[in-house]
Amino acid sequence: MVTSVGAASSSVASNSSAASQSSKSLAQNFDTFLKLLTTQLQHQDPLQPMDSEKSTEQLVSFSGVEQQIAGNKSLESMVALLSAGQSASAANMIGKSIDATGDQVAVKNGTGTWSYELPREAKTATLAVLDSNNNVVYIADADKAAGAHDFTWTGKTNAGTQLPDGTYRLVVTAEDATGTSMDAKLAVRGVVDGVEYVDGATMLTVGSRKVKLADVLSIKATTASN
To answer: What is the CATH number of domain 97-220?
Structure first.
């Protein structure tokens, strides 16, 4: 069973920050309003008191600001609940295999898996695996059919040398029958080892890589092949 994951994390973080900043700003304006109103009442001319209509308008404004502060506090509480739910969902992903947007994969136990999608059939298509220094360590022909394809690398160079586990990047170069180059959509696959929180964002640990929760495309139960 595959479960789609939306990009809710960035939206939750943004709403939480906006609500918090808005509440602080409104609270400051609210306090300022009270001070001004109190000062105005203390220093008004007894013979010419404040116009009742203006006083009513100020009280209406007072009530509106108070309600808006209360509304923002409710929004903050709702965002906190959403964040807690998101955290629980992320924790449940530990031990699961995920597909996520990206071209870098953490090769583990000599195995790394990518998927790439061609928008149309290619006349020529090549896969190149690069190490952390952007050196090409493996090159092969790619599947030329339109659509999605999986590519699993065994961690060996074309000469058969086994390279150490680590982070490697895949580059897909493809041209159609007219010689026009095509952009392949890349995704990476790996098993979630843990969850971290960096600058308010939920990050999944996949081998030596950090994957944003918002970049996850699918989640699958692990199998012997994973």
So the answer is: 2.60.40.4070
